[in-house]
Amino acid sequence: MRAKVVLGILFLIFGLGAGVLEWVISGLAAPFPTLGLAATAVGLYLIADGLRRRQRETVRTEDVAIGALLAAAIGGTILASELKKRMERGNVSREEIDKALMQLELLRAQGRVPPEKYAELKAILENARRRA
């Protein structure tokens, strides 16, 4: 048992013995037991709080890893589509293409890009490099 529950039981017993029980038995006609009612109320609160199980929301590390991978995949797809639009307009410099190729290689080495997506993006970047 938790210490709160034990302390609550002690307060409850003290409060009932300090006049609350006699006050209730007499039909609330006896003198008002202020100290007894306060101790009883504190005891009931401590018992209820000690017995209540608190559920804490926790996030597993697997969930965080999956979320990070999904965010990286979505971000990569958005960046690739943005790069395609800029290449069609001719606003892409050779340095940006080289940087994108390095990032693509890094993502492939980490295993974050599937082989078919890697081949597609690599072909797009190589085509853009030839045009620039």
Secondary structure: elements and pairs:
Blueprint: H1 3-25, H2 34-51, H3 61-89, H4 94-110, H5 115-131
Helix pairs in contact: 1-2, 4-5
Describe this structure in words.
With 132 residues, this protein is mostly helical. It has two domains: 3-51; 65-131, no CATH class. The chain contains five helices and no strands. The protein has helices at residues 3-25, 34-51, 61-89, 94-110, 115-131. α4 (94-110) packs antiparallel against α5. The protein is rod-shaped and about 100 Å long. The protein starts with a helix and ends with a helix.
How many helical stretches? 5
Q: What overall geometry do the principal axes of the alpha carbons give?
A: rod-shaped
**What is the H-and-E element order?**
HHHHH
Number of strands: 0
Spatial extent as radius of gyration: 35 Å
- The domain tally reads 2
Low-confidence stretches are none
The description of the largest β-sheet is: none
Termini Cα gap: 74 Å
Mean pLDDT: 81
In what range is the share of β-strand residues?
A: under 5%
Structural class: mainly alpha
Helix fraction? Answer: over 70%
